[in-house]
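A common beginner's mistake is to predict each chain separately and then try to dock the pieces by hand. The better habit, illustrated here, is to supply every component at once so that their relative placement is modeled jointly.
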Amino acid sequence: MSAQQPLSDDSATLTITNSSNVSTKKQPPPEKPSDVRRRSNVILSFWLIVLLLGLPIWWKTTTIYRADLPLEEMLEWADGKACRPVFPLRISIQASALQDQEAQNLLRLTQHALDDLNDFAGHHLRLQLSSPLGSEKRSTTDNGSALTIRLTPGEGTTSTLDPLEPILDITYSPNTIPSPTSSSSSLATYIASQLRSTFAEEQATISYLLSTNSMPSEHRPLSLSPETAESLAKRTTRSLKYAPTYHLTFSLFTSGPLPSSWDIESAIDEYMKPVLDVLSPIHNFTIDTQVQLYASPGVQSQVLNKEDLTSFINAAEWPLSPSIGGAPTINFIVFVGNQTIASADSSSQSWLIPQWGTVYLLSLPSDTIHVPANTLKQPLLTFTSHLLSLTGTPESGSLPLRLSTLARIRSADLLLRASSTLGSLARLAMALPSISIPSSVAAGVSETMSHLRLACDTLGGPQGLEHARIAEAEAERAFFEKSMVGQLYFPDEHKIAVYLPLLGPVAVPLVMGLINEIKAWRKRKREKAEKGAEKKKE
Amino acid sequence: MRQFLPFFSLSLLSFLSTTCGATSTTSDTAAADYHEQLVLRPLPQSALLASFNFRSNITVSEFEAHNFRFFPRSLGQILQHAGTRELHLRFGLGRWDSESWGARPWDGAREGGTGVELWAWLEAQSDEEADHKWLTLTNALSGLFCASLNFIDGTRTTRPVMSFQPEGDHPNTTATDTHLLYGVLPHEVVCTENLTPFLKLLPCKGKAGIATLLDGHKLFDASWQSMAIDVRPICPAGGECVLQIELTIDMVLDIDRSKRPRDNPIPRPPPGHELPCNTSKPYHSHDTCFPADHEANQDWTLSQIFGRSMKGTCPLTDSKVPPVCLQVPNSRAVYHSDGVLEKKNLDRISRCFEIKPDADFEIVLPNPRDDQENNQGAITHIVKPETPLLYAERSFTGHGQERGGMQTILRNPSPDTAVEFIYMESLPWFMRIYLHTMSARIDGQSGKDESLVKEVYYRPAVDRARATQLEVRMRVPPASTVFLTYDFEKSILRYTEYPPDANRGFDVAAAVITILNSANEAVYNLRTTTLLCSLPTPDFSMPYNVIIFTSTAIALAFGGMFNILVRRFVAADEGPEVGLAAVKAKLKGRLAVLAKRFGGAGAKKGVVEEVKPVPVADVKE
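With all components supplied together, the output reads:
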């Protein structure tokens, strides 16, 4: 349609003759307007098909399914903006010997003293007065108080923690009772400082957890001294990741053929079972035991140095495969041999391997065939105390208090972990636009967030732990969704190699046709305008 | 007198072996918690069969309380997790040469085909649950034994109906909640990494007892070897049920090859004076040598063939079971290390050794020629192998990439007894068999014999989901050979279904033959060799070629059609000039325009430039 330009190159004169030649060249008959219109229609319809049908089909069939994720909200959780972890701890005061008004006054003053001492808003102690009849046990558990203070008159001011119940016994001399008008009292300050020291470890642990996670600075709790932070870091790295069930494996390893049997079952029942029962609200435990003869340790030297302890476990030969099923395994190994540990404290026979378990070196007479339960007492007591630190139980305080603290620490930990997993997922979804996000991930995320919300609202209570646990499991499941991984390895070069051979040759005539048609249309328009101008002239 | 001796010993052997088998099955329930035994049997053609057997028990109550002592904890956990009642796992390598070695050890009950075989009775309420547990089991075992057992998926799993019977005592074997599943991986190469976890399952590891002889280099250098793990519940009358694990390793060592020193493993021809020659030949002289029969050359020591000597005994083992037994005729002299008590058994063809717990043990078998002046044939130096009940061979027939055939030759050597057995094939789905072509005929007769096949159980394959399962109950008359044949079609796989070495072919699992006695009990098992089936294999650059080719075709068709619709057709002299000259002229014109734009207003050029646009304007009008 666009006429080629026959050009000559010899000289100007020749060009002129040539051009006269061209002008005399036979011209095709003028095209009928209907033909021109038909051609335009053909090109238009082709392009319409390509744009309206081809492109949507191509888009639809090659697009990657990405479920909608609430990215903003997920990042808010990860940054700690969505939830401010607050642990309101209720502490009830039993003061049967005091007048009601006196007790109220004491409570008010103590609360003031506590508030003055406390610089961490997230961990809050709230005092309340228990009813005078509340000495019975049920009421202390029913109203959900973390600790009960039992005030009894006595000589001097002393305080003791009850080893079996979450009760702090405080005696006071009657003259220290504050008068209703006084604004400060030594007894109130004393109680406050006692409470403070009782919960100091929990506070430090929680604030450590919050500080290691990306909490915004305005929520950042009290700053920890470097030593405390270091010891807390040690303790958290030592403890296993939270799981509702732990699998305990007790193994008897001997370097020779003897002994080949042990009374482990009765020993566990006697020395370890009580603690496992106490831990049962937080963790379940499954147990198995084994005897392994001819087990050579990874280190053969007679005296074990600190460096040897890390390589003592002969992972290649000892059958310590973790349990199948979901529960993480904690290994407790009694190694019968005559090796000793080189340390200042010569009596130490055991060491703890962080997040893995414990080894106890037991030296027995060489002809022992059977290890009786009473020989296993010391190893099992060691294992029990190590189990507590492997599960992350705090070190100070009475056992019930430590356990309730453990529940709170664990729920905070799980909450933060789930939040940070959500954040990672959100960042992943944003960083890789070509990754597919199946709807199961979106479902997992919404499930996680609803449980996180619930956990955040009930922090400190038993439901809080349960919700945090579900949230964490759901978040992990969403993050490790299998079908999300495969899409990562589909390179763009591959797509080009597949599409280009088809699209290239098809696109060239289409585009050329369109360009020519546009040119012809413009030409026609100009001609029309010229004609119109000529007519006007005439 | 001498002529009778072989016959006598043969009949005695068969008699004693049956009684021994019977006593061993009854006594093992009453035995201690652990025992181990190694049986060495020299075979013809300079081969030696070594059968290691380790057996340990755990009471069911201990098992349920997870207190493991002799039973390996790692395996126990898996069994509990997958609800397994009875488990059989086999690793096999090589071929048992039954023509010269005779009947298989353990009557074939402790061996599998080449590769890995697994069958188990699982406790499940439904088929889906059984499949799920099977998946758990295969995946866990795959991790434990460093084998690709996790590739036993639905396409390699069958549920045999007739071939397998539980070995253990199950309270009610016909219960609907017990499911038998069978999976096989013929392609798996068994190697040292499978032996190491196997040894870890033993209470004494490889540190004491007969397990010290197990060396990966020697085991996997053997002509034939099989590792088996069997777990079964056994309930003795009036006693507590126990769960028994039996670990068995059988291997046939080539004595000559095993004796080759490890630092000089390349075989070199021995010098002429060391060649074992048959001196009885009349043409024997210093420069001619007729090689002596292999069977005559049966001298070896324990440390020579296993590469190390045995270190004491495992202290946990049952002291009533002698740890090592040697099956050679009593007439043959055998030397052993000090402090070992040699006991010759009454059957006159075997002797056992009682070993002190912490002394090294060594046996020396001298060359029989040295201690006996008159060479009376090899038969007196080794125990003559027992004839198996049936010989089986399987091969592919046919040609081409589309169809194929399978032929199994089954020979009954017995002159007077017919053999009844179940022949089981578990074929991959891409071999689609034509069941109507299956026929059995007796060698020497034309036409198929309908009476040979008694019962057929056939479960057809489902593409990419299920394997073909074919179980045939057959009878082979005495002293006859039966040909069982059928045809199949090879299907074409999808591009991604081919393995990386697609041109090697696809392994077809061994057929399992279970010989039954009159009471329908399995008395002997054998397996054929695995086969390599070659499927039509495409050129793997094909998809790209196809893409390019179809794209070109589509583009051609589209371009032509589009141009016909859109172009205007005029006479040749009416249209614009085309061809090389037109392109050249156009290019020159363009260049001239450029030169004008950049070269300034040159007077000489100006003439040209002024003129040049003229034709352009001319044409454009």
